[in-house]
Design brief:
- By secondary structure, the chain is mainly alpha-helical.
- About 40% of the residues lie in helices and about 5% in strands.
- It has two domains: about 45 residues, no CATH class; about 80 residues, Arc Repressor Mutant, subunit A (Orthogonal Bundle), CATH 1.10.10.
- Helix 1 crosses helix 2, helix 3 packs antiparallel against helix 4 and helix 4 packs across helix 6.
């Protein structure tokens, strides 16, 4: 569909929800028509440019400074892979566990043994990319706990997806 026609349609739908709308079927919003159209245009740009990650395969990113910090390390490549795996698994957790023996048994990273997980974890700690929050080992069930050094930046929806409580108007060709 042509970008201009799509944006016009989406703006029309959104503007119909504005407070000055005469439609009683669509609940009002607190935004002006211009604000609504600006947001619609921005959202559509994300969709067209492939930057809308909602509903897509899970992904993580690594900053230039993180790559630089790990590139000079002996096990930097392993640490970078482990960091990516940790971010995929724990993107929404402030504190998490790294259990090398369990990760080896689960074959989280194929062909890695627990020593390799430990070495990669230690590289991440030494580079300051993760921090040890609690040193375990005081008994059964007392595991070490870790946190990302800085929060993982999120992109996309951070709550439940929007589901319209009403039917959208049919497409009207212009």
């Amino acid at each position: 569909m042509h970008r201009t026609a799509t944006i016009k349609r989406l703006c029309w739908i959104a503007v119909e929800r504005s407070p000055n709308s005469t439609s009683s079927l669509i609940p009002p919003t607190l935004f002006s028509d211009a604000e609504i159209c600006k947001v619609v245009d921005s959202a559509w740009s994300y969709e067209q440019d492939g930057k809308n990650w909602v509903g897509k395969e899970q992904r993580v990113y690594t900053t230039k400074s993180e790559i630089h910090a790990l590139s000079s390390r002996k096990r930097g490549g392993d640490a970078l892979l482990l960091l990516s795996i940790l971010r995929l698994a724990h993107w929404n957790r402030p504190i998490f566990v790294i259990a090398p023996k369990a990760m080896e048994q689960a074959n989280v990273i194929p062909d890695w043994d627990c020593r390799r997980y430990r070495a990669a974890r230690d590289e991440l700690i030494e580079c300051g990319l993760i921090t040890l929050v609690h040193k375990g080992g005081r008994g059964i069930g007392d595991v070490s706990r870790y946190a990302f050094a800085k929060p993982v930046d999120l992109m996309g929806a951070q709550s439940v997806p929007f589901v319209a409580p009403f039917d959208l108007p049919p497409f009207i060709p212009q």
